[in-house]
């Protein structure tokens, strides 16, 4: 009887369910498993575990953190070994580390890391911080001045590269000896379009260390950013076509149209998010702590929204950062500005490091069908097509440029066309066919070649060719005035000639900006502040901070006065009565004592609030120093002008506390 | 009809202007048509009012000074030659010129001459120095009316401080040249 009541036990994972089913089995088939039953129930009645081991629970975040930690430790390590880091760019070292780690993991035969550089992770998490960092801090002046050149390189250059490489590889594959006759034209063109794009991550990583002059840097870097639209369009185009099998003229035409849609649409989305972000920052004066988040989130949303529609996410991200920046910076506090700057740098640094390490790891984890001809020809053809493209485009561009590109410049531009992780990830996304692994191998080889060979040799070549290095410009007020002066001058001349050139449109844009846009997007009186004044304020602040940090603040005589200082002190400038003058050193002593002691008590009494930033003693020093400096200058001016006696009297007497109203 | 014909440009004149300023034939003819379109009085010269009629120039902060730069000392009219001579400062440098030997006198549109032109816009009293007052005036024009004199004064002081190397509290032309404009000076 007992036997017929067997309950079918489903084979299932997990201890609890088998235990349950076994227990059910017990209840219905009591006899044979009694001893078993005993042990089971004693198993239940074990003592309460004080210490237990449960790794699965935290597995994913643990691994991620471990990877990031490894990446950062490597980064630290390279700088402790000075000799190596001088010769070899950091990106190469990171790839090597990735190779090593990949090799180690492979030896243990795990396949988890390969999924790490899977395209989704790369495109959604690793790439945006780098692009945002680049876009937010894009130097606008050189970028807009060279925009035409950059666009020509990005669009025409990439198209040329893609087709040249694709067609040449197709031709090579047709040769009987290579035994690759199965590769059809569209696959080759797809391959060409993936491998032709200059990669912003790699360019940034290498160019940052060689400090070449701004023009070349912005040309190569700008090209690497803007060619994303072309890459996206070509990639989707050829993928679609290889599904359909045939190409008609209408398709080609639609391809061209889609290019415009992709790039302009991306920019539009970015600009919209940028404006919304700028508008939001107008109201954040009461919650300064969350200000940086708005910048990050709006930009990220711009990227994601563009990706939804298969538009160019990179261009959207850059447009957002560029549009947002001038208005947001006018609105946010100084601390938020620093936060944004450092967070962006931090994230992009981590991302970059991770990307290179994973590149190395993924290389090891893949099977690599090696076809000498294909791979070597790819590398050679990439280089050749880049050189040809750059030289011929420069020839055409130089007819329209005023500052021509010399042969040296052309060489650097051609040599700096590095491929990187974007090409690899795009290759990863290819549909799984027999060619995919071969293509991936070729792509990886090209990437390695450009990053290692070209990356390592570009620095000595720059030295050898005596290419102009970046000028260490300290951003003086003089330069700013000079630049603005010249802008106005050249605009005027252009207007007289009736020539609607570069300056004319820039001027129109600036006027539009001042008249309409600034009013909406910038809080309070800062909206009417001329650029020169905000620049000047920024510089004064910087200098004051430097003085405080170097501890020489005490050397300045202490005189007080109110001068506007919006971003440091949200509250009103301290109102102090005019005190009878005592000896300056005595005064300093008293101040120091008072400040030191008073602040301690004040801080203890203030309640902790997560939502407000407390005023920092450091910052008070900064404002203090600024005040003092201004007064020193004023004093000096007074004494030197008293002889000239032109305007000394009137504005000294204006030094009342209430004067602040006139100062924006 | 009659007065217009007398102001049409003759070939010899074009050649002379070409030699003096370095503009090409087509550039000269284009600028001539611009000159005539500005010249409402049709007398072959431009007066200050003709310039002021250009709308964008009216809102340019340096508009007045630029206009003044066209008119030689004390005169109120400028003819086409004078017009071209001033504009020649801003002609783009051609490639073939870079190879000319430097024994020839410096062309009008060399960097130094351009900067000299800009310098003269600051330096109204032509004493070859930009004093603090002259700087203040230019700053005031560029910055508008909302800024107090004090702030402007401290900016001017700081500017002079940065640029002044011989300590005379004003900026001479040599000091002016040393201020490097931002990289990528396309339109020079």
From TrEMBL, chain A:
One of its GO terms (molecular function) is sodium:proton antiporter activity. The chain crosses the membrane at residues 64-81, 87-109, 121-138, 150-173, 185-206, 218-238, 250-276, 296-323, 344-366, 372-398, 410-431, 437-462. Residues 68-463 form the Cation/H+ exchanger transmembrane domain. Residues 632-664 are annotated as: Disordered. It is a multi-pass membrane protein. One of its GO terms (cellular component) is basolateral plasma membrane. Residues 639-664 have a biased composition (Polar residues). It is found in: Basolateral cell membrane. Residues 562-647 form the Sodium/hydrogen exchanger regulatory region domain. Keywords: Antiport, Cell membrane, Glycoprotein, Ion transport, Membrane, Phosphoprotein, Sodium, Sodium transport, Transmembrane, Transmembrane helix, Transport. One of its GO terms (biological process) is regulation of intracellular pH. PANTHER family: SODIUM/HYDROGEN EXCHANGER, SODIUM_HYDROGEN EXCHANGER. Belongs to the monovalent cation:proton antiporter 1 (CPA1) transporter (TC 2.A.36) family. This is Sodium/hydrogen exchanger. It comes from Sphaeramia orbicularis.
TrEMBL record, chain B:
GO terms for cellular component: cytoplasm; nucleus; plasma membrane. GO terms for biological process: protein transport. Pfam families: EF-hand_7 (PF13499). Keywords: Calcium, Cell membrane, Cytoplasm, Lipoprotein, Membrane, Metal-binding, Myristate, Nucleus, Phosphoprotein, Protein transport, Repeat, Transport. Its main location: membrane. It is found in: Cell membrane; Cytoplasm; Nucleus. The keyword Repeat applies. One of its GO terms (molecular function) is calcium ion binding. Residues 26-61, 110-145, 151-186 form the EF-hand domain. Gene3D superfamilies: EF-hand (1.10.238.10). PROSITE patterns: EF_HAND_1, EF_HAND_2. PANTHER family: EG:114D9.1 PROTEIN-RELATED (PTHR46002). Belongs to the calcineurin regulatory subunit family. CHP subfamily. This is EF-hand domain-containing protein. It comes from Sphaeramia orbicularis (orbiculate cardinalfish). The gene is chp1.
